Every structure is written in C-alpha cells, then in structure tokens.
Amino acid sequence: NLEQYDKALNAYKQVLDIEGPGAETYCCMAAAYEKIGQFELGIKYYRKSVKVDDLYDDAWYGIGVCLSALERWYEAIHFFTRALKINANQAHYWIGVAKAEYETGNTLSAIDAYEVATALELDNHDPFLDWSYIYYEQGNYDKAIEIVDDGLHLFGEEADLYYRKTAYLIEAGRYKEAFNY
After folding, report:
1. Which of 12, 31, 28 minimizes the C-alpha distance to 20?
2. pLDDT, tens digit, 9 for 90 and up, residues 98-154
3. Rounded CA gap, 148 and 162, in Å?
C-alpha cells in the first residue's frame, strides 16, 4: 500500500518461507508484480494462487487485469468471468468484463456489464464515463447524457461528469444547455 513493491515482494517471499504456499500470499505477490508492470510474472503468481485455492476470486480477476494490460482481451474476458462465477457482487469485476467486451467489439455485452456494475455499490464515477461513451460513439447522445446524469446523481460534483455531459450536449446540438454545464 506504500507503493514499495520491491520491499513488499521480499516480505511476501519471507512469508512463503515461514508459512508455505498460500493463495493470499501468492495473490499479493502477483498484485505487486502487476503494479510494477511485470504482467507475465503477475499472471504466474495469480495462477499459483488459484492452484492453492481455485475459489480465490481476486486471483482470477487479477489474471484478467494483467491480460487486459497486455491487450489480450478475449483471454481476459474468460478470467473475469471465472471471478464473477465465484463472486458476482464485485463491481470492479463487472467493469473489467465491460472494458474487455468493449475492446473486442461486443458492445451489447459491455453495456450489460456496465449496467450491472453501476447497479452495485461503486466508489468512483469512471464506469459512468466509459458506459456513456459507448452510446456517444453510436450517436445516441440522449442515452449518453442520461447515463452521465445517473452518475451525477450518485457522485454530485465530479468535474469529469460535467465535462462529459457538456461535450455530449454540444454534440446533440443543445448549446444553451451545454453552456450552463
């Protein structure tokens, strides 16, 4: 959490020496490798984690995150889905699926996943931006604006949401309303 990943990795290796293999320890090591951009090593340790405990959803999700970073979208979808089968109440798992589905051109699946993600408790407004952008790209400005409004309702004074709404209003030809935002 202090972003001292090398020290964290050394500490996790000591934990392995003392306690032996553990799903959580492997998962934490994988996350550290992920944070320093060593995605292949991250995948290796996430896989070790699920070998110890195949119901460790964070590890399945982590593999998906690493594969997404490597732009291996189809593979990422598989691992995000594995995580969701274990725990479907994690908004960030749904967001991972949504982004990967979008990248593969499966906009309907991406929209469905964003809808589920935003219905769950969220701690940030970014999914509303990404979800609305799909509709914006399709020229459905009213739906894009509606989604941003939902985000504004939940997150209030987020400048990104106001900025995005302004852009969508301009594209929709609603200049006076855009000026107000």
Report:
1. 12
2. 999 999 999 999 999 999 999 997 888 999 999 999 999 999 999 999 999 999 999
3. 8
